[in-house]
Amino acid sequence: MAGIHRRLALPEARLVVASKATVPAGFTISSPHDGYLEIYYVAVAPNFWGQGVARELLADVDRHAQNAGVQELRLWVIAETSRATDLYQANGYRDSGQELADETTGRIELLLSKTMG
């Protein structure tokens, strides 16, 4: 929760919650950062996996970026989560070649980016 609160405190942070039949199904948090829009969270409740919730949330972020005139989107993904990596790549994100080890977990994260256009 601390990470979520920290991201929501960023200037112009944007939280979008998706629901199915009035039940919260997932959310995104994004914020502009040095000329690009960074997506900090794309989270979907496991009982909603495979129902298109993440795709809908990513499409909403795309629309927001286009309306704001932002040309690039970025996000970090845990390297070993092929389900998430495959989803992002299917939605136009490409591996930037940058990676880092998360300070708290030690897991390797990859920077993915998408150019709008």
UniProtKB/TrEMBL annotation:
UniProt xrefs under InterPro entries: Acyl_CoA_acyltransferase (IPR016181), Bact_Acetyltransf (IPR050832), GNAT_dom (IPR000182)
Keyword annotations: Acyltransferase, Transferase
Entry annotated with the keyword Cell membrane: no
Source organism of the structure: Glutamicibacter arilaitensis (strain DSM 16368 / CIP 108037 / IAM 15318 / JCM 13566 / NCIMB 14258 / Re117)
Protein name per Swiss-Prot or TrEMBL: GNAT-family acetyltransferase
Broad enzyme group: transferase
EC number: 2.3.-.-
Short name of any one Pfam family annotated for the protein: Acetyltransf_1
